[in-house]
Q: What sequence folds into this?
């Protein structure tokens, strides 16, 4: 007998097949018993008629509890009212392993309880839908760059230097020396861009951020393209095409999942490039109208970002942030002293910054000056300075945070559900 997956059942109408899976739920009414089976690829209703199935199998229902692992066999038939449009006229049911008092039940559970049981919570329908959307986003990210002639370069996790400031570094031992967990692969991508022109890295990054917000993870995945000869405006163009591509891919390929997450997709359908672009000062004017306490020159807080993004139906760029609040590598606009050639992309509906990036400083002496100002150790960046000594070139890039993008596209209230095993401030379990 053929052992198949629930997702493939439609290809086996009329055939007698075998399924393995977990008990999602059971119910009975007299001579009929129903088993809703879950195998990870879908849900399937299996119907047992007393007299038409094995007597022992019928009696086995007594022992079934949520999440028992079972094997069943029966005949596949079309049934439009059942999940997946098919049903099994079942003959056999074997209990393979038991599950007593599964902790996650259909009733409401608190966040802490669910997070402590994340390894089990992951099995629930909503979490499965989120993981499938996340996978589609990851695939869209790779396809976008791969189809545009970018080369994937994996950046190291252990690094000797700070890319995004010293306040969020995870320090660890590297034999006799100390090392940090990477906050960003950017500096390495700049080296790789000089070797291969258009590159990107895609991997986990780490920030020791002692903040419990709905947007911050300690470990998150970031994709970082870097392109030789691109300026700030080329960079924004790349970023908006990229974000449009991701959103439209998910809408096309994961509509069922978005529906089960009750996402308002009509808002996502409007995500088409080009996106509006605001100078930092223009954004400040908008913010000040609703938040008079905002101090000109400061970075935006979550609520400030929401004030700005609420004015638009697509994500919006803010560019030319003050150099003083941006990283050491940001190029200052030669025509606008004190302003950097930086750009952040703010998502719609208050989801906040999903992209940060800009044009890099390519002048050796200015960069050395910046390193001093940021109180970084020059010797840690000697290799990075070489990029400015040997054929320095204009270049730009950005980083998109995968979890914030998943949260936005799925319409989730918190990033903790956007990755299978989130690392949050105060949580390193399971
Ligand atoms: O703005 P950030 O810090 O930029 C960089 O790291 C640059 N080196 C990227 C580059 O130009 N190559 O981070 C980029 C993005 C943010 O916009 C956000 O989406 C995400 O990474 N991000 C986080 N996501 C979750 N939790 C955190 N703690 C995050 N910090 C940044
Ligand atoms: Mg940023």
A:
């Amino acid at each position: 007998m053929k052992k198949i997956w629930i997702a493939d059942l439609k290809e086996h109408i009329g055939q007698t097949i075998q399924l393995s899976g977990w008990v999602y739920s059971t119910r009975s009414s007299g001579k009929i018993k129903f088993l809703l089976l879950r195998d990870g690829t879908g849900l399937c209703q299996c119907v047992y008629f007393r007299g038409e199935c094995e007597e022992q199998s019928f009696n086995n229902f007594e022992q079934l509890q949520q999440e028992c692992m079972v094997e069943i066999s029966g005949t596949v038939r079309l049934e439009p009212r059942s999940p997946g449009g098919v049903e099994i006229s079942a003959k056999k049911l074997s209990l393979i392993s038991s599950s007593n008092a599964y902790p996650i039940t259909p009733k409401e559970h608190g966040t802490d309880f669910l997070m402590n049981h994340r390894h089990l919570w992951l099995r629930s329908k909503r979490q499965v839908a989120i993981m499938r959307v996340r996978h589609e986003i990851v695939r869209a990210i790779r396809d976008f760059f791969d189809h545009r002639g970018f080369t994937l370069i994996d950046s190291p996790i252990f690094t000797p230097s700070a890319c995004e400031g010293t306040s969020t570094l995870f320090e660890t031992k590297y034999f006799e020396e100390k090392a940090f967990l990477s906050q960003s692969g950017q500096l390495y991508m700049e080296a790789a861009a000089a070797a291969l022109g258009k590159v990107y890295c895609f991997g986990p990054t780490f920030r020791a951020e002692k903040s419990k917000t709905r947007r911050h993870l300690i470990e998150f995945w970031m994709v970082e393209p870097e392109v030789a000869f691109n300026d700030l405006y080329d960079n924004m163009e790349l970023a908006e095409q990229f974000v449009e591509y991701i959103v439209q891919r998910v809408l096309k390929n994961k509509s069922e999942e978005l529906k089960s997450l009750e996402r308002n997709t009509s808002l996502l359908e409007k995500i088409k490039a080009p996106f509006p672009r605001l100078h930092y000062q223009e954004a400040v004017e908008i913010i000040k109208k609703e938040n008079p306490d905002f101090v000109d020159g400061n970075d935006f807080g979550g609520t400030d970002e929401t004030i700005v993004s609420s004015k638009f139906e697509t994500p919006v760029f803010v560019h030319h942030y003050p150099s003083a609040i941006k990283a050491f590598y940001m190029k200052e606009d030669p025509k606008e002293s004190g302003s950097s050639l930086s750009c952040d992309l703010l998502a719609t509906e208050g989801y906040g910054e999903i992209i940060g990036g800009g044009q890099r400083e390519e002048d050796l002496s200015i960069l050395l000056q910046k390193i001093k100002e940021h109180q970084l150790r020059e010797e840690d960046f000697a290799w990075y300075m070489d990029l400015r000594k040997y054929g320095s070139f204009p270049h730009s890039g950005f980083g998109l945070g995968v979890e914030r993008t998943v949260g936005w596209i799925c319409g989730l209230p918190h990033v903790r559900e956007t990755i299978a095993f989130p690392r949050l401030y105060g949580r390193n379990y399971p």
The two ends are 38 Å apart (CA to CA). The chain is about 30% helix and 25% strand. The first strand starts at residue 2 and ends at 3. The longest helix spans residues 125-146.
